[in-house]
Please model this.
Amino acid sequence: LVEREGRIHTYVNTLAGFLRENPGQYSHFILLDHQDWLAANNVPALREEWELILANSRPGTKILLRSAAQEVNFFPDFVLERLEFEQDKTVSTHFKDRVGTYASVYMGIVK
Model:
């Protein structure tokens, strides 16, 4: 770990801002429950974030999303068209979560 500490960088930004400033083909995204807030308070920002996530993904990119909602219904249509959700895998691991903060977990794979 000490040998690799120079590879660690911190950023203070939104995810959308980070992706605009650091474009690339990322292989993994982990999204906490901030999208719950965006869906309720700033739908244009939610859409922009998903546009940038998908623009900076490659086929096979894994996107883990956690939500306070039992069921997420705020994914824009274009997201549902580009992701294949692996709920069978996430449901079983969600029940093993020791903290229990989130009501639902989704794993999307970019097509």
Summary: Strands lie at 26-31, 57-67, 83-85, 104-110. The radius of gyration is 15 Å. The CA atoms of residues 15 and 92 lie 28 Å apart. The longest strand covers residues 57-67.
